[in-house]
Amino acid sequence: MSCSSSSETSVPTLRTVTIPYSELKEKDVDLSSKIEEGFGPNGLGILSIKDVPGFSALRRNLLNLSPRLASLPEEIKKELEDPSTRYNFGWSHGKEKLESGKPDVLKGSYYANPIIDVPTTDEHLIQRYPSYCGSNIWPDSALPELEVAFKALGKLILDVGLMVAYHCDQYVSKGMKDNEDEGLVKILSSSRCHKGRLLYYFPAHQNDGSKGGDSMSSWCGWHTDHGSLTGLTCALFKRDGVEIPCPDSAAGLYIRTRTDQIVKVVYGEDELAYQIGETTEILSGGYLCATPHCVRAPKGAAASNVDRSTFALFMQPDWDQKLNFPEEARLHKELKLANSCLTFGEYTEKLLGKYYHSRS
Ligand SMILES: O=C(O)CCC(=O)C(=O)O
Ligand SMILES: [Fe+2]
Known about the structure:
Distance between the termini: 43 Å
InterPro entries: IPNS-like_sf, Oxoglu/Fe-dep_dioxygenase_dom
Bound molecules: 2-oxoglutaric acid, fe (ii) ion
Keywords: Iron, Metal-binding, Oxidoreductase
Protein name: Fe2OG dioxygenase domain-containing protein
GO molecular function: metal ion binding; oxidoreductase activity
Oligomer: single chain
Family: Belongs to the iron/ascorbate-dependent oxidoreductase family.
């Protein structure tokens, strides 16, 4: 991993560990050392895949639609909202909370399952797990291209993600001898719970530079993803509708390392990055580690009128998937998951219960 220092701050900038697609797709190439370097206990929890056929065009197609979606008339965006799924399908703006507790109006998101439009029609399930069992909402007349572009990129990220998952399973099975878990490939390939998120970070205007603040997490707060594996594209920046390079070298994705250092992480626009989610960290007994991350907004005059579009695919187990929680779990010890068997849906509910409880 190469390392340099970001000009404005003393935070180091690290390049992700990169695997060429030609190696990733081969089942008999041993990638354990790369997986360990990226996702293992001393890795950053992120790695990137380069030269994925077709990726660059699909990324560009979808990310270019993000500002167009965000600038649709408010009444059209309202029709694309779904409060019954807690805004986990369709358009979501100002519904999530920032670290400060204030509503997040800095970005808009569009959520959909790129693999299945209607994962279930069972009302009981829809009510119990609204964020997984809801249905897609597409802007059929206002932006018909969105559905095609979203599904195409989402499917590609899933296919490549399953290849990453295969090599993760190989790495984990070498270390975890009594692993009862089914492995990431098995868990992810049959899931109806994958969720794509098209993100649009609204531009700052000259006089409201203070809005996002100076902090590291000015655009997206510190968090770890909840599911198994997250695919991420490199963000696309525009000023007044014209694509530009990121105007501030300090802006972008930041990660907190295992030793509590904060680093800025970069990868190429033609690379597809993957991060580990909390569920995988727990199930792999810590062989694969989840990563706290956040996004810093660009600052200063150069950031004026600059927007940012990106896409994340959260690969998650099915709500019905039984998970065997091993003894060594480091995360959420207070939920007493060790040696228990819960479905992913039940586990998510337990976790939400914990958060709501601790917030009240
Ligand atoms: O905007 C980004 O680059 C990351 C977004 C993210 O971390 C998330 O949606 O979970
Ligand atoms: Fe995230």
